[in-house]
Write a structure and sequence with these properties.
This protein has 347 residues and is α/β, with parallel strands linked by helices. The chain is 44% helix and 17% strand. The chain has 13 helices and 12 strands. The protein has an 8-stranded mixed β-sheet with strand order 5-2-1-6-7-8-11-12, sandwiched between helices. The chain has a 4-stranded mixed β-sheet with strand order 4-3-10-9. Strand 9 and strand 10 (139-141) form a beta hairpin.
Protein backbone atom coordinates (compact mmCIF):
# COMPACT_ATOMS: atom_id res chain seq x y z
CA UNK A 1 0.00 0.00 0.00
CA UNK A 2 1.11 3.57 -0.55
CA UNK A 3 0.82 6.34 2.02
CA UNK A 4 -2.57 7.54 0.78
CA UNK A 5 -5.75 6.56 2.66
CA UNK A 6 -7.45 3.35 1.58
CA UNK A 7 -10.61 3.58 -0.49
CA UNK A 8 -12.83 0.77 0.75
CA UNK A 9 -14.95 -1.19 -1.70
CA UNK A 10 -17.59 -3.16 0.22
CA UNK A 11 -18.73 -5.97 -2.08
CA UNK A 12 -21.97 -7.49 -0.82
CA UNK A 13 -23.56 -4.61 1.05
CA UNK A 14 -26.23 -6.40 3.03
CA UNK A 15 -26.57 -6.13 6.79
CA UNK A 16 -22.90 -6.64 7.70
CA UNK A 17 -21.39 -4.91 4.67
CA UNK A 18 -23.67 -1.87 4.93
CA UNK A 19 -22.98 -1.54 8.66
CA UNK A 20 -19.22 -1.57 8.14
CA UNK A 21 -19.53 0.76 5.17
CA UNK A 22 -21.81 3.13 7.06
CA UNK A 23 -19.48 3.37 10.04
CA UNK A 24 -16.53 4.01 7.73
CA UNK A 25 -18.48 6.73 5.92
CA UNK A 26 -19.39 8.36 9.24
CA UNK A 27 -15.70 8.34 10.21
CA UNK A 28 -14.76 10.15 7.01
CA UNK A 29 -13.37 7.31 4.89
CA UNK A 30 -13.97 7.03 1.17
CA UNK A 31 -16.29 4.08 0.55
CA UNK A 32 -18.12 2.54 -2.40
CA UNK A 33 -20.61 -0.25 -1.75
CA UNK A 34 -21.72 -2.95 -4.21
CA UNK A 35 -25.22 -4.23 -3.47
CA UNK A 36 -28.41 -5.67 -4.89
CA UNK A 37 -30.38 -2.98 -6.78
CA UNK A 38 -32.94 -2.30 -4.01
CA UNK A 39 -30.19 -2.12 -1.40
CA UNK A 40 -27.96 0.08 -3.56
CA UNK A 41 -30.86 2.50 -4.04
CA UNK A 42 -31.49 2.56 -0.29
CA UNK A 43 -27.80 3.28 0.34
CA UNK A 44 -27.87 6.20 -2.06
CA UNK A 45 -31.06 7.61 -0.50
CA UNK A 46 -30.07 6.94 3.10
CA UNK A 47 -29.98 4.05 5.58
CA UNK A 48 -30.54 4.07 9.32
CA UNK A 49 -28.52 1.95 11.76
CA UNK A 50 -29.96 1.48 15.24
CA UNK A 51 -27.43 0.51 17.92
CA UNK A 52 -27.50 0.78 21.72
CA UNK A 53 -30.21 3.43 21.70
CA UNK A 54 -28.30 5.48 19.12
CA UNK A 55 -29.36 6.05 15.54
CA UNK A 56 -26.84 6.52 12.76
CA UNK A 57 -28.10 7.77 9.42
CA UNK A 58 -25.89 7.81 6.35
CA UNK A 59 -25.96 7.65 2.60
CA UNK A 60 -23.14 6.41 0.41
CA UNK A 61 -21.94 5.80 -3.12
CA UNK A 62 -23.38 2.49 -4.25
CA UNK A 63 -23.32 0.45 -7.44
CA UNK A 64 -24.82 -2.89 -8.38
CA UNK A 65 -21.90 -4.66 -10.09
CA UNK A 66 -18.12 -4.67 -10.28
CA UNK A 67 -18.14 -3.30 -13.84
CA UNK A 68 -19.46 0.02 -12.49
CA UNK A 69 -16.38 0.53 -10.28
CA UNK A 70 -13.66 2.95 -11.40
CA UNK A 71 -10.49 1.38 -9.95
CA UNK A 72 -7.86 3.40 -8.08
CA UNK A 73 -4.48 2.24 -6.70
CA UNK A 74 -5.84 2.89 -3.19
CA UNK A 75 -8.65 0.33 -3.40
CA UNK A 76 -9.05 -2.53 -0.95
CA UNK A 77 -12.08 -4.77 -1.38
CA UNK A 78 -13.90 -6.22 1.60
CA UNK A 79 -16.01 -9.13 0.31
CA UNK A 80 -19.05 -9.48 2.57
CA UNK A 81 -21.25 -11.66 0.39
CA UNK A 82 -22.37 -15.13 1.44
CA UNK A 83 -19.89 -17.88 0.66
CA UNK A 84 -21.97 -19.32 -2.17
CA UNK A 85 -21.39 -16.08 -4.13
CA UNK A 86 -17.62 -15.85 -3.67
CA UNK A 87 -16.49 -17.54 -6.89
CA UNK A 88 -18.66 -15.24 -9.03
CA UNK A 89 -17.58 -12.13 -7.10
CA UNK A 90 -13.91 -13.03 -7.49
CA UNK A 91 -14.26 -13.42 -11.26
CA UNK A 92 -16.12 -10.10 -11.54
CA UNK A 93 -13.47 -8.26 -9.53
CA UNK A 94 -10.59 -9.89 -11.41
CA UNK A 95 -12.08 -8.73 -14.72
CA UNK A 96 -12.02 -5.14 -13.46
CA UNK A 97 -8.82 -5.02 -11.38
CA UNK A 98 -6.49 -7.83 -12.38
CA UNK A 99 -4.45 -9.84 -9.88
CA UNK A 100 -2.85 -7.12 -7.72
CA UNK A 101 -6.01 -5.95 -5.90
CA UNK A 102 -5.91 -6.54 -2.11
CA UNK A 103 -8.96 -8.67 -1.28
CA UNK A 104 -10.32 -9.33 2.21
CA UNK A 105 -12.72 -12.24 2.71
CA UNK A 106 -14.80 -10.87 5.57
CA UNK A 107 -17.20 -13.81 5.49
CA UNK A 108 -18.34 -16.89 7.33
CA UNK A 109 -16.84 -20.21 6.31
CA UNK A 110 -13.25 -21.13 5.49
CA UNK A 111 -13.18 -21.75 1.74
CA UNK A 112 -13.46 -18.17 0.51
CA UNK A 113 -9.81 -17.20 0.89
CA UNK A 114 -8.63 -20.16 -1.19
CA UNK A 115 -11.10 -19.23 -3.94
CA UNK A 116 -9.88 -15.63 -3.93
CA UNK A 117 -6.22 -16.75 -3.95
CA UNK A 118 -6.77 -18.50 -7.29
CA UNK A 119 -7.02 -15.04 -8.87
CA UNK A 120 -5.48 -12.48 -6.51
CA UNK A 121 -1.93 -12.15 -5.22
CA UNK A 122 -2.86 -10.41 -1.97
CA UNK A 123 -5.62 -12.14 -0.05
CA UNK A 124 -6.55 -11.43 3.57
CA UNK A 125 -8.61 -13.49 5.97
CA UNK A 126 -11.26 -11.55 7.85
CA UNK A 127 -13.18 -12.62 10.94
CA UNK A 128 -16.40 -10.77 11.70
CA UNK A 129 -18.53 -10.87 14.84
CA UNK A 130 -21.21 -8.40 13.91
CA UNK A 131 -24.76 -9.69 14.15
CA UNK A 132 -26.51 -7.05 12.10
CA UNK A 133 -30.15 -7.63 11.16
CA UNK A 134 -31.63 -6.12 8.00
CA UNK A 135 -35.20 -7.17 7.24
CA UNK A 136 -35.76 -4.18 4.94
CA UNK A 137 -33.21 -2.28 2.83
CA UNK A 138 -33.29 1.03 4.73
CA UNK A 139 -32.99 -0.19 8.34
CA UNK A 140 -30.30 -2.18 10.17
CA UNK A 141 -30.42 -3.11 13.84
CA UNK A 142 -27.06 -3.74 15.47
CA UNK A 143 -26.93 -5.63 18.79
CA UNK A 144 -23.93 -5.48 21.09
CA UNK A 145 -20.72 -7.05 19.86
CA UNK A 146 -18.82 -5.84 16.81
CA UNK A 147 -15.41 -7.49 16.76
CA UNK A 148 -13.26 -8.07 13.67
CA UNK A 149 -9.82 -9.54 12.97
CA UNK A 150 -7.63 -9.36 9.88
CA UNK A 151 -4.54 -11.24 8.73
CA UNK A 152 -2.66 -12.32 5.64
CA UNK A 153 -3.95 -15.56 4.11
CA UNK A 154 -3.00 -18.28 4.97
CA UNK A 155 -1.17 -16.75 7.94
CA UNK A 156 0.77 -13.68 8.96
CA UNK A 157 0.31 -9.94 9.36
CA UNK A 158 1.46 -7.05 7.17
CA UNK A 159 0.99 -3.31 7.01
CA UNK A 160 -2.25 -3.53 5.05
CA UNK A 161 -3.86 -5.82 7.63
CA UNK A 162 -2.74 -3.45 10.38
CA UNK A 163 -4.07 -0.42 8.50
CA UNK A 164 -7.46 -2.02 7.90
CA UNK A 165 -7.75 -2.94 11.58
CA UNK A 166 -6.75 0.60 12.60
CA UNK A 167 -9.23 2.23 10.21
CA UNK A 168 -12.14 0.06 11.35
CA UNK A 169 -11.28 0.67 14.99
CA UNK A 170 -11.34 4.41 14.37
CA UNK A 171 -14.76 3.91 12.75
CA UNK A 172 -16.18 2.50 15.99
CA UNK A 173 -15.55 -1.22 15.61
CA UNK A 174 -13.17 -3.41 17.62
CA UNK A 175 -10.64 -4.67 15.11
CA UNK A 176 -7.29 -6.41 15.52
CA UNK A 177 -4.58 -7.68 13.18
CA UNK A 178 -3.54 -11.28 13.87
CA UNK A 179 -1.50 -14.04 12.27
CA UNK A 180 -4.11 -16.59 13.41
CA UNK A 181 -7.30 -15.43 11.72
CA UNK A 182 -7.88 -18.70 9.86
CA UNK A 183 -7.87 -20.65 13.13
CA UNK A 184 -10.38 -18.13 14.48
CA UNK A 185 -12.52 -18.63 11.38
CA UNK A 186 -12.56 -22.40 11.90
CA UNK A 187 -13.75 -21.73 15.45
CA UNK A 188 -16.44 -19.41 14.19
CA UNK A 189 -17.50 -22.01 11.64
CA UNK A 190 -18.22 -24.34 14.56
CA UNK A 191 -20.31 -21.62 16.23
CA UNK A 192 -22.10 -20.92 12.95
CA UNK A 193 -23.20 -24.54 12.59
CA UNK A 194 -26.13 -23.52 14.79
CA UNK A 195 -27.26 -20.85 12.33
CA UNK A 196 -29.15 -23.76 10.77
CA UNK A 197 -30.49 -24.84 14.17
CA UNK A 198 -31.90 -21.38 14.91
CA UNK A 199 -33.39 -21.15 11.45
CA UNK A 200 -35.13 -24.51 11.63
CA UNK A 201 -36.69 -23.82 15.04
CA UNK A 202 -37.36 -20.16 14.22
CA UNK A 203 -35.54 -18.74 17.26
CA UNK A 204 -33.55 -15.56 17.41
CA UNK A 205 -30.18 -16.02 19.14
CA UNK A 206 -31.13 -14.47 22.48
CA UNK A 207 -34.17 -16.72 22.74
CA UNK A 208 -32.11 -19.77 21.87
CA UNK A 209 -29.55 -18.96 24.55
CA UNK A 210 -32.31 -18.89 27.20
CA UNK A 211 -33.94 -22.18 26.18
CA UNK A 212 -32.50 -25.27 27.90
CA UNK A 213 -33.59 -27.67 25.16
CA UNK A 214 -32.02 -25.41 22.56
CA UNK A 215 -28.76 -25.08 24.51
CA UNK A 216 -28.41 -28.87 24.74
CA UNK A 217 -29.06 -29.21 21.02
CA UNK A 218 -26.60 -26.46 20.16
CA UNK A 219 -23.97 -28.15 22.33
CA UNK A 220 -24.32 -31.46 20.46
CA UNK A 221 -24.09 -29.74 17.06
CA UNK A 222 -20.90 -27.92 18.03
CA UNK A 223 -19.35 -30.95 19.75
CA UNK A 224 -19.86 -32.98 16.59
CA UNK A 225 -18.09 -30.27 14.58
CA UNK A 226 -15.20 -30.16 17.03
CA UNK A 227 -14.81 -33.96 16.94
CA UNK A 228 -14.54 -33.83 13.15
CA UNK A 229 -12.02 -31.00 13.07
CA UNK A 230 -9.92 -32.53 15.86
CA UNK A 231 -9.79 -35.81 13.96
CA UNK A 232 -8.69 -33.90 10.86
CA UNK A 233 -5.97 -32.05 12.79
CA UNK A 234 -7.45 -28.62 12.05
CA UNK A 235 -6.76 -25.88 14.60
CA UNK A 236 -9.92 -24.14 15.76
CA UNK A 237 -8.24 -21.58 18.03
CA UNK A 238 -5.02 -19.55 18.10
CA UNK A 239 -2.35 -20.44 20.68
CA UNK A 240 -3.36 -19.69 24.26
CA UNK A 241 -1.01 -16.71 24.49
CA UNK A 242 -2.37 -15.06 21.33
CA UNK A 243 -5.24 -12.57 21.60
CA UNK A 244 -8.47 -13.86 20.11
CA UNK A 245 -12.10 -12.72 20.16
CA UNK A 246 -13.25 -16.35 20.01
CA UNK A 247 -12.40 -19.39 22.10
CA UNK A 248 -14.86 -21.90 20.73
CA UNK A 249 -14.18 -24.71 23.22
CA UNK A 250 -15.03 -22.56 26.22
CA UNK A 251 -18.03 -21.13 24.37
CA UNK A 252 -19.26 -24.65 23.68
CA UNK A 253 -18.75 -25.88 27.25
CA UNK A 254 -20.73 -22.86 28.48
CA UNK A 255 -23.83 -24.21 26.71
CA UNK A 256 -24.03 -26.96 29.35
CA UNK A 257 -24.51 -24.35 32.09
CA UNK A 258 -27.91 -22.80 32.83
CA UNK A 259 -28.56 -19.47 31.10
CA UNK A 260 -27.66 -16.30 32.96
CA UNK A 261 -30.64 -14.94 34.89
CA UNK A 262 -30.02 -11.42 33.62
CA UNK A 263 -30.12 -12.39 29.94
CA UNK A 264 -32.69 -11.12 27.46
CA UNK A 265 -36.12 -12.70 27.68
CA UNK A 266 -38.37 -13.14 24.69
CA UNK A 267 -39.90 -9.70 24.93
CA UNK A 268 -36.96 -7.42 25.62
CA UNK A 269 -33.76 -6.25 23.99
CA UNK A 270 -32.59 -6.74 20.44
CA UNK A 271 -33.51 -9.84 18.48
CA UNK A 272 -30.45 -11.12 16.67
CA UNK A 273 -31.42 -13.30 13.73
CA UNK A 274 -28.69 -15.33 12.00
CA UNK A 275 -28.18 -14.45 8.36
CA UNK A 276 -29.50 -17.89 7.35
CA UNK A 277 -32.75 -17.14 9.21
CA UNK A 278 -32.96 -13.84 7.36
CA UNK A 279 -32.35 -15.57 4.00
CA UNK A 280 -35.29 -17.94 4.47
CA UNK A 281 -37.54 -15.28 5.97
CA UNK A 282 -36.90 -12.97 3.01
CA UNK A 283 -37.44 -15.75 0.46
CA UNK A 284 -33.91 -15.82 -0.94
CA UNK A 285 -32.92 -18.77 -3.09
CA UNK A 286 -29.75 -19.96 -1.37
CA UNK A 287 -28.03 -20.16 2.01
CA UNK A 288 -24.44 -20.76 3.04
CA UNK A 289 -25.28 -23.96 4.94
CA UNK A 290 -23.26 -26.01 2.41
CA UNK A 291 -20.19 -23.96 3.40
CA UNK A 292 -20.79 -24.46 7.13
CA UNK A 293 -22.59 -27.70 8.02
CA UNK A 294 -21.68 -29.10 4.61
CA UNK A 295 -17.96 -28.67 5.22
CA UNK A 296 -18.19 -30.54 8.52
CA UNK A 297 -20.05 -33.37 6.78
CA UNK A 298 -17.44 -33.65 4.01
CA UNK A 299 -14.48 -33.58 6.40
CA UNK A 300 -16.31 -36.08 8.63
CA UNK A 301 -16.52 -38.49 5.70
CA UNK A 302 -12.78 -38.20 5.09
CA UNK A 303 -11.82 -38.83 8.72
CA UNK A 304 -14.64 -41.35 9.32
CA UNK A 305 -16.40 -39.39 12.05
CA UNK A 306 -20.22 -39.65 11.87
CA UNK A 307 -22.11 -36.36 11.50
CA UNK A 308 -25.79 -37.10 12.17
CA UNK A 309 -26.47 -33.65 13.64
CA UNK A 310 -25.01 -31.58 10.85
CA UNK A 311 -26.26 -33.95 8.14
CA UNK A 312 -29.83 -33.65 9.41
CA UNK A 313 -29.60 -29.87 9.77
CA UNK A 314 -28.30 -29.47 6.23
CA UNK A 315 -30.93 -31.78 4.79
CA UNK A 316 -33.74 -29.86 6.52
CA UNK A 317 -32.37 -26.42 5.57
CA UNK A 318 -32.07 -27.43 1.92
CA UNK A 319 -35.62 -28.78 1.97
CA UNK A 320 -36.92 -25.58 3.57
CA UNK A 321 -35.17 -23.55 0.90
CA UNK A 322 -36.47 -25.71 -1.95
CA UNK A 323 -40.06 -25.60 -0.63
CA UNK A 324 -40.00 -21.93 0.34
CA UNK A 325 -40.65 -22.67 4.03
CA UNK A 326 -40.23 -19.97 6.65
CA UNK A 327 -38.18 -20.42 9.85
CA UNK A 328 -39.79 -22.39 12.68
CA UNK A 329 -40.90 -25.82 11.47
CA UNK A 330 -39.78 -27.77 14.60
CA UNK A 331 -39.32 -27.07 18.29
CA UNK A 332 -35.83 -27.68 19.70
CA UNK A 333 -37.03 -30.87 21.42
CA UNK A 334 -38.65 -32.15 18.21
CA UNK A 335 -35.54 -31.43 16.16
CA UNK A 336 -33.26 -33.07 18.74
CA UNK A 337 -35.43 -36.18 18.85
CA UNK A 338 -35.48 -36.38 15.05
CA UNK A 339 -31.69 -36.20 14.84
CA UNK A 340 -31.19 -38.83 17.54
CA UNK A 341 -33.70 -41.16 15.90
CA UNK A 342 -31.87 -40.87 12.57
CA UNK A 343 -28.53 -41.47 14.27
CA UNK A 344 -29.82 -44.66 15.90
CA UNK A 345 -31.35 -45.85 12.63
CA UNK A 346 -27.97 -45.58 10.88
CA UNK A 347 -26.00 -47.52 13.52
Amino acid sequence: MNSEPIRYIIFGAGAVGSTIGGLLVRAGFEVVLVARPAYAEALRRGIRIEQDGEEISFNADAVTEAAELAPTPRDVVLITTKSQSTAEVVEDLFAVYGPSLPVVCLQNGVRNEAIAAERFERVYAGLVFLSAVQLRPDLITLPAGRVLAFGVYPSGVDGTAQQIASDLTSAGLEAIASAHVMAMKWGKLVANLNNATHTIVGYWIERGMRDLDMRRLMFEVREEGLRVLDAAGIAVEPPEDAPSPIRIRKMTEALLRPPKPDGNDEGSGHRTYPSMWQDLYLGRKSTEADFLNGDIIEIGKRVRVPTPYNSTLLEIINRMMAEGLKPGIYTPAELHALIEARAVAKT
